[in-house]
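pasting for ref. prot 1 ->
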Amino acid sequence: MAEILKKKRLSGDIFMMKINAPIIAEKRKAGQFIILRASEKGERIPLTIVDSDPADGSITIVFQVVGFTTSVLAGLEAGQHIMDIAGPLGQPTHIEHFGRVLVVGGGVGIAVAYPIAKAMKKAGNTVTSIIGARNKDLLVLEEKLAAISDAMIVMTDDGSYKRKGLVTEGLKEALDAEKVDLVIAIGPVPMMRAVSELTRPYNVKTVVSLNPIMVDGTGMCGACRVLVGGVTRFACVDGPEFDGHEVDFDDLTMRLRAYKPQELQAYKQIQGTPRVRGA
């Protein structure tokens, strides 16, 4: 069991937790994640490690309440325990001195963008962070990102804070301003798809962090399979980061929708009863 050391509400339904996990804290690198169970009978869900402190043996996660497990997690307080945590999982972000790097975060994906932007800056890159959300209340870690970024662009869909518009608008301005060596995008699938399509004509390498359904985190269940360059890959062991210009976003979107109750019934009517989850 892992003790919750600190809990903070970042906005209405977005929380930050600091958790005692010394082995994970020591080994974790930017881009990696954990899989946790909040309780003995709970489901397993993946959450990115936002930060870690090997000195005190803690890791930090950020999550939004979107389902049963995140609701249970949000109900826990400092001093209480999470049933179990496995990690660090996945391949870490490839960090080196690229030159000018644009890190794009959308919604809760901003929390995932932070450790990557921090690592890129530490490697000597010039980092521009471009973040966005539907409204001001859903923006997280803005101050932390600003502290490690050379420049920052903040967008809100409704114009309730900073600039009104989508992150792709800020991204296009940054791409047009001067040569860019790498773009990293983390957020909702439609956003990552739009970023990848925007950067394609600029011939700028674009990395996206995929979020398919995961169960075991070891590649055994097959639930997190994605098509990249026409080849089946598993996000939990081969990813979660892939070349955005090679990801089959149509396939990824279909798989994410397949397990929503209202769409699962439609899927059955068209395809027949599906096999076990991830098949």
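and prot 2 ->
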Amino acid sequence: MLSHSPSPRIRTRQIIDADIHSAANFLSGGFSRSSPQDWLLFFDRLTKHPTPPGLPRYGYLMERDGTPIGVVLLISSVIRADDVNTTRCNLSSWYVLPAYRSYAALFVSQILKHKDVTYVNVSAADHTLPILKAQGFSKYTSGQFFAIPTPFTLLGESGVSVVDVDASHDWHLDPVEHDLLLRHAQYGCTSVWCMTSGRAYPFVFRSRVVKGFIRCAQLIYCRDMEEFTRFARPLIRFLALRGQAIVVIDANGRIPGIAGTYISGVRPRYFRGPAPPRLGDLAYTEAAMFGIY
């Protein structure tokens, strides 16, 4: 009489503190340019991140008979726009062992269960796009605009100053924006205020390298793109003088009034939920917290 071994048990559950080291080792195996120490740093940032109640602090684990076969990290945040708070969840660092890729769609579907949450993926790999589209994700940016300094830009602009978030001041600052800039500075971002006529305008950038050697600054946060356009000259000058001569901006075409080039198909961003995220807001995503694009 033939005996049959029991079917493997595959389940999905939230990552807990006790899983952190095994999840870090698993992700370092899936992302070859990273180490377990890199992922432990990311988990530390997630531990300290103010996750909204009812959402997972770290993300989800898929396991077979207690052994990890898939991990997706989630960064859940309360985002304020036009004085209205919304909840956004960034699907980050998603990896499933090749032998279990057929379970990947089910893995994701079990995560996307909050109807009032906007889910975003800002670094979708090509092989995950069919799954994202099947799960109702849509593209909200199609490419990147690369802003470059010009001699006119480098002359500076009277009446406007760009100051670091840690600079001493006696201005009245919005406490939510101030906290956002301080937290992103701790992640390694460049957090600055543009000052003019006694008013402060917040901006966050993250240093990145393009083509292996070109130092750039990715726009992570501004209140809206009109403010970035308004202060593009002093901001680009500030960054260029610090060795980041090109500013990279999520876009769907050229940005009027700013010298540069738009390239379609570079780092498109995807979302699912009540409304698309606005351009110029990658705050509390993996691009800001982990430097993953």
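Residues 36-48 form the longest helix (13 residues).
The chain has nine helices and twelve strands.
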